[in-house]
Amino acid sequence: MWGSNWVALLGAVPLIGSPFVQVEAAHTLRPQNASICDAGTKQYTGTVDVGVGKSLFFWFYESRNDPKNDPLILWMTGGPGGSSLLAAFTEWGPCLLTADSSSTYYNNHSWVNNANVVFLDQPAGAGFSNTTSEAALVGGLAPGSVDFNTFLNLFFTEVFPQYASNDFHIAGESYAGHYIPYYVTYIEKLKAKNSSAAFPGIIESIMLFDAAVDSFSALDTGFYDMLCEGPEGDIFNQTYCDSMANAVPEVERQAAVCRDTYNATYCLEAQGYSGDALEKGFNELVDLGIRNPYHLYRGCIQEPLCLPADAGNLTVYFNKPGIQAALGYSDYFYSPTNNTIVVGFIEGGDDTIPANREMTYILNQTAIDVLVVNGALDIAVNLPAQKRIYDEHIPWKNQAKFRTHSYVDWFYDKHIGNFTAPVRTKGGQTKNTEGLVFVTVDDAGHMAPADQKEAVESVVKLWIQGKIGELTV
């Protein structure tokens, strides 16, 4: 979710917990209730065996509205190696952790208001997804793609076949900007070959939230925009900003080489150069706790993810014996991040190469629509660089139209208090062409669905209902 530029923030975590007793079945399924998550709807947890020694954990919530007919959204948190329970319990799930991590409370602005939702811990080894040996850990996008395809096949045939015909959307955050394009491209290419192994369902859209699609060096160019020319332009003195400006052309050249070659060595070199030239000064402030890589105006209180003080602590909550017992685990060490997976992706080169080609394939060769949502105050996956990437570095059939369109304000109905009418409120800016919609979110950082719950919920609702054009009305 956070990219290798921030690996030092993650810290080492145990490799493998102690999974619950192994069974022969291809999947497990457990109903849950309000004692573990005050969701206001039916909910289930379970696992799907996707290979030898690999079992992926999921948490499924029925829509609060019309489960039989509402769409289904599958969510993946990034990392690589991040648990999707981070989004479920601190961002936009139907229940959120209390500040003291003792319980949960009902979230009025969860996406389950209008959709069935499954949060998936992947790749194998992330969160509650079990691995029986170090060899079973997934350290790359290729094996992750195979496991994801296997999961979908089993989930929609053996676990919840009644949802196989519902509209299906795949969403994710940060490094999911790599997961989703690679996994979806893998599936769609299998379909193009008429492979019997391909997930046969129709993917209506992908939704990318503060998602790193291009190389990290390409994203680094936005550090200059935000820290030297943006509202916080006084963070560094003019001399330092001039040195950053002088480095940008070389950073862009190396990012282009990375993008053109997909060569892991070139991409790693580009990332190293841009990190030294554009990130170093800000990183020093992050190390001191003064700044936050995920939000322009916050310090870092809860390391390593710099969550707000009131977000609750997933490690505390999900390592409680009673909670683990309800999920079917015993003496398992749960962590929202797995640094060993990060290292595996780095060593295999998949952490540094981009996903631009895969995005081009999706936009040109499939009928899958793409929604991009980005917090305006995100640093790690910053808005200035993201705008350049989608305007210039993902070639596709409607690129010229998209690039020449202007951003316009979008609005949502904000509820203030319980007894007053909602106020039509500016949520950010947007532009779109057929196939691609880009939405910026005001006053939101890397976890935009958490920072602006009601605003982002309104975007998602209109998107899955095919009414995204109403954002600007």
UniProtKB/TrEMBL annotation:
Annotated keywords: Carboxypeptidase, Glycoprotein, Hydrolase, Protease, Signal
Record GO terms (molecular function): serine-type carboxypeptidase activity
Organism superkingdom: Eukaryota
Cited Gene3D superfamilies: 1.10.287.410, alpha/beta hydrolase
GO BP, one annotated term: proteolysis
Keyword Membrane: no
InterPro entries to which the protein is assigned, alphabetical: AB_hydrolase_fold (IPR029058), Peptidase_S10 (IPR001563), Ser_caboxypep_ser_AS (IPR018202)
SUPFAM superfamilies: alpha/beta-Hydrolases (SSF53474)
Signal peptide start and end residues: 1-25
PROSITE patterns per UniProt: CARBOXYPEPT_SER_SER (PS00131)
Keyword Signal appears in the UniProt entry: yes
EC number: 3.4.16.-
Pfam families: Peptidase_S10 (PF00450)
Gene Ontology cellular component terms for the protein in this record: fungal-type vacuole
Entry similarity comment: Belongs to the peptidase S10 family.
Designated name of the protein: Carboxypeptidase
Origin species: Mytilinidion resinicola
